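Researcher: Final request for today, and then I'll write up notes for the group meeting. The sequence and the SMILES for adenosine monophosphate follow.
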Amino acid sequence: MPDILVYVDHTDGAVRKPTLELLTLARRLGDPVAVHLGPGAEQAAPALAEHGAVRVLAADAPEFADYHVVPKVDALQAAVDAVSPAAVLVPSSAEGKEIAARLAVRTGSGLLTDAVDVAEQDGHVVATQSVFAASYTTVSRVTEGMPVITVKPNAAAPEPSPAAGTVEQLQVTFSALASGTQVVTRTPRETTGRPELTEAAIVVSGGRGLGGAEHFALIEELADALGGAVGASRAAVDAGWYPHSNQVGQTGKTVSPQLYIAAGISGAIQHRAGMQTSKTIVAINKDAEAPIFELADYGVVGDLFDVVPALTEEVKARKG
Amino acid sequence: MSLKIVVCVKYVPDATGDRTFAEDLTTDRDAVDGLLSELDEYAVEQALRIAEDADDAEVIALTIGPEDATDALRKALSMGADRAVHVEDDDLHGTDALGTSLVLAKAIEHTGFDLVVCGMASTDGGMGVVPAMLAERLGVPQVTLLSELSVADGAVTGRRDGDAATERLRASLPAVVSVTDQSGEARYPSFKGIMAAKKKPVETLDLEDLDIEPSQVGLAGARTTVLSATERPPRTAGEIVTDEGEGGKQLAAFLAERKFI
Ligand SMILES: Cc1cc2nc3c(=O)[nH]c(=O)nc-3n(C[C@H](O)[C@H](O)[C@H](O)COP(=O)(O)OP(=O)(O)OC[C@H]3O[C@@H](n4cnc5c(N)ncnc54)[C@H](O)[C@@H]3O)c2cc1C
Ligand SMILES: Nc1ncnc2c1ncn2[C@@H]1O[C@H](COP(=O)(O)O)[C@@H](O)[C@H]1O
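Model: Predicted protein-adenosine monophosphate complex:
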């Protein structure tokens, strides 16, 4: 079995769920070898091993936190040199895509981004992507070099498959450009206690129809009653009612939850781009002509200020 | 301090049209009208603002694309860019991100630069990888996905709102930056700007001018290939009810039926 490199997304050794999904996908292609950069490899190793990592290549250095992107590319390249993998899988975060992009240039390899599935087909690695605001599904393959593929959250359900997961030190020599972009300050995002937007099984989003920041409490209450995450349309974000990190759509997050509830959102193409692959879509809008109803499995034409609180109450009552 | 700013702009099919694929599985550029990618307007805007704050700056709009892509350049010129460079060659049809970044890098080396400004992603392919690839190829720092930036004392500083943290990044020039749609509304071209744009120079370059072998780009040079493109079956509208006081309850019943509660 060839080795497949999996880039680990983590916070101080707490592995994020998309990485476990990548390990699951990697097992279809070969033996997953995890690359863990920064502190916490020993803490991360059990989860990585549990999900099939045969080895964990670890490197820690101040460069990873002090400078932007390039040190991580240098390290991933060192891992490629050490392992000669058949493919490299990287989580499709903003940073993940940049790391993958530079690695692809360095290795002269084809790059596929934002895969929603990865498989082996006739001896080749193929990736499924969702394009043109999710109106098309494409299947592509890399024809030159070692495939570098970034994979979106929720591409697979993480499945345990215990392997050795032995931690080995990875030797990294930083390139001249590694210290090119300095991280002057870093302010971690405050945690809300709600599930991660891109990973949540249920997302409740609010749009311009909410009419003000204070009304997002309605959306938060419903989300909390359902155990979901909170999303927002760009109109709501641009108005300053909710943080940009919660924006769903073309220039925000792509979500693909089991249930997406849109309240006071019209359903513009750029918003649909980020939510149209949700399993079940529910819309609440007072305009019966709103395009969001074209994709809703269930829609309520009505005032969200009546419907949302009533729904929240009913959810709480039913959940007891 | 003189400052040469190259802003990379892409000509894309209008996202509000029914975008589709051509027979060779490349983006069909005839099916839908093209325009300057809306996300690259933000790049033009920031390039112009940086230029306005500098003593002696030049803003060059650069595109790779078919003949019609001059529309995108004209828009950038009418917003205020000083001149434009259009890389156009039949052999470019079907170029992937690696190839695009190669051609852009060569064209940028041809014009010379202190700062390259890109959009956060193109609205058609939407990979968001070309700026990082450009920095890699040009051998200069990348300062990307900025929602705020400034240039002073030979360095660029900006704010990047990431998933886990907000970072303040800094790099010396020359550098490649990309800006998000949070960086500030793009200006509308004024009538004067539109008239002035007609007289601004547009330099056209082909692969030979840039010393690029046709085999390195286009479908032939692409390192990825699309095997199939299938239209997603349109979502069919489900049950729509009108709230007459029971809307919340009805919705809850639906969610219960689907086992969400
Ligand atoms: C390049 C580009 C990228 C973009 N990226 C994104 C993106 O990532 N995400 C995104 O969301 N948008 C994006 N947009 C913007 C997008 O085009 C829309 O403008 C935006 O999605 C509209 O947000 P909205 O639905 O909240 O507002 P509107 O379109 O104004 O809709 C508000 C809706 O609320 C309803 N409403 C009002 N009051 C009530 C009430 N009391 N009860 C019930 N319903 C009510 C109205 O009937 C209306 O349908 C992008 C645009 C461009 C050009
Ligand atoms: N063909 C092109 N011509 C000029 N600039 C481009 C082209 N393709 C991509 N870019 C630039 O790279 C950015 C990111 O593109 P992408 O990686 O394709 O999403 C865009 O916002 C543009 O600034």
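Model: The first strand of chain A starts at residue 3 and ends at 7. Residues 24 and 158 of chain A are 6 Å apart (CA to CA).
Researcher: Thanks, that's everything.
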